[in-house]
Design brief:
alpha+beta, Chorismate synthase, AroC fold, five-stranded antiparallel β-sheet, 15 strands, 33% helix, 17% strand
Amino acid sequence: MSAFRFLTAGESHGKGLVAVVEGVPAGLPLSADQIADDLARRQGGYGRGRRQQIEQDRAEIVSGVRHGLTIGSPIALTMVNRDHENANWRVRMAVEPVDQEVERVTLLRPGHADLAGTQKYGFDDVRPVLERSSARETAARVAIGAIARALLAELGVSVRSHTLSVGDVRAHVPDRIDWEAVEASPVRVADPGAEAAMIAAIDRAKEALDTVGGIFEVRATGVPMGLGSHVHWDRRVDGRLAQAIMSINAVKAVEVGEGVAGAALPGSQVQDVILPAAAWERRPWERATNRAGGLEGGMTNGEEVVVRGYLKPISTVPRRMPTADLLTGEETTSFYERSDACVVPAAGVIGEAMVSIVLADAALEKFGGDHIDEFRRNCEAFAKTVGPRAARERSRPGGGGS
């Protein structure tokens, strides 16, 4: 059983979204304003559609927090869908039976969950599938990720993201990323020289009534060594991160560290050399490089955790595509509902949430604790055991230390 568990509910044009989070220790400072910061970042980014102008996402905390501190019980969040206030959506997505004809959606959109979902659940209407499979659900996950981020911050962990590419435009990533500049960039890119070209690529897609994909990168710094385990496949943090990133809409590939480039190199050029104690500057067991992306054998190794998500161009293109009708199987063209031209900048924020959730779960699994102070103490106690064995022996009472 996961230490940090959550569920989401809600449909894209339904009344709203709901999330329940369990496993957060008592005593963690948490407010709706903290969560709102990440929700606003998810709604931004060049290439987003009109839906983001309608919604002003804010999660209301309805349980699990008292006087600004978590109390150890499940945290419940609710978010209202403003678009549901439209009379058409109130009828189309009504919970109770309605006394009027509701138009069915039977034109299957390629690249979506439409066909597989209708066949799996036996629907004669695509609407129930597309409403839940919509990326609107990720707003709830970003709210949950904000809670995980607050928990990780207690251990000194920070999780950030930036855009690596949009279409065929690739950013040159500096050795030291200016994260404030990333957040100020409309495409959330760390390379100022690539920003205009990325915007132009999005504009070209819009003009062509098309969409464009790309790559985002998530970096987690300050992650303690030893999260996850090598002993079972489902406890490996790299596997858990891959599943989490792949669960984001439109992500079709995941990379940890320099996994793609490393596949073409000899092993001697891929390993991260372990430095001797005399060369350590920040912490014990530093490396000369971080090609592994902070993970070895399914465990965090103390280096920065680096994960990339590769997004296909989203399938909701603003023109009709060849397809078949759900009821007749006859050739037709797909329908179009408003969408984004590019979601890469926003997807990075969702990626941060998913990485935060996985790392928070792994940290609670490792350190436990019913109160945040206990959680922090357990982590600090473990940190004192990390280092050369001889040094640890010398520091023990009676061990020969000064």
